[in-house]
Structure formats: C-alpha cells, structure tokens
Write a structure and sequence with these properties.
CATH topology of the largest domain: Ribosomal Protein L9, domain 1
Largest sheet: 2 strands, antiparallel
CATH class of the largest domain: Alpha Beta
Order of helices and strands: HHEHE
Bound molecules: FE2/S2 (inorganic) cluster
Number of domains: 2
Number of helices: 3
Shape: elongated
CATH superfamily of the largest domain: CDGSH iron-sulfur domain, mitoNEET-type
Strand content: 5-15%
Structural class: mainly alpha
CATH architecture of the largest domain: 3-Layer(aba) Sandwich
Helix content: 40-55%
Distance between the termini: 81 Å
C-alpha cells in the first residue's frame, strides 16, 4: 500500500511538474524531441483511455452484454415460435432485431434500434401470391 501511496503522492505529481506543457498552442511548436518524449507516457495513457472508453460505449450501444435477445422470453433456454403456414395471412412481417414488443412479429421497433446503433436490421417479410396472379 505504501508503494501505491508514494506513486500517487510523490512520483505522479513530480512527473506532471516536469512535463514541458506550454502555455499556448503555439508553444507546442517550440518543444524539442526530448520534451515530446517525456510526454509519451501521458499522451499514451490518455489515448488508451479514450480508445477503451469509446470501445466500451460502442459495445454497450450495440449489444449490451453481447446477447442479441435483450427481453423476449428470457426465462426460457431457447425462444422458438412455430406457425402453420395456412394460418398466416396474405402478408406478415417477422422481427429479426429482437426489439419488437409483439415478437416474433415486427412492430417497427427496428427503426429506433437502427437509429440508436447505426445497425441496418429489418423484418423478414412474407407474402402470399394470390392464386389469380
Ligand atoms: S421490430 Fe424487429 S425487425 Fe421490426
């Protein structure tokens, strides 16, 4: 614990004090190669934090915990729906985004999902050709 305390109370503050951070953006042009080298740990750490944060945000937006199904019949080991093709109407749209409140039928929720995530999912649309056509 003492090593951690020394790192945060002594080493880190003296590192920051030693950084040649200029007062103005124009001052960046005055920095030498050695000055830039001293800032590599700081810039590298900030860059890594930014990249990891963006990756985490994107992962959370896209799939939460990695599961496609976020809310449909979560008490079951597997979600299966079966329809007799004779019972389907002339047109039916089935959800493929797993966000529909009327799952397995599409209720248009894919529009909001696509807008929020940049995804491009849509329903499976079935239609029966009429006997006369
Ligand atoms: S609501 Fe899921 S595809 Fe339309």
């Amino acid at each position: 614990m003492e090593a951690i305390a020394i790192f945060f109370k002594v080493t880190l503050p003296s590192y920051f004090e030693s950084l040649p951070i200029p007062e103005t953006f124009g001052g960046l042009l005055q920095l030498t190669g050695a000055d830039w080298l001293r800032m590599v740990p700081l810039v590298g750490t900030l860059g890594a934090v930014i990249v990891l944060t963006v990756m985490q945000i994107r992962r959370g937006k896209c799939s939460g915990n990695g599961q496609v199904n976020q809310s449909v019949e979560k008490d079951k080991a597997k979600v299966v729906h079966a329809f007799d093709i004779e019972d389907l109407g002339d047109k039916e749209a089935f959800c493929r985004c797993w966000r529909s409140k009327t799952f397995p039928k599409c209720d248009g929720s894919h529009v909001g999902h696509n807008k929020a995530t940049g995804d491009n999912v849509g329903p499976l649309c079935l239609s029966r050709k009429s006997a006369s056509s």
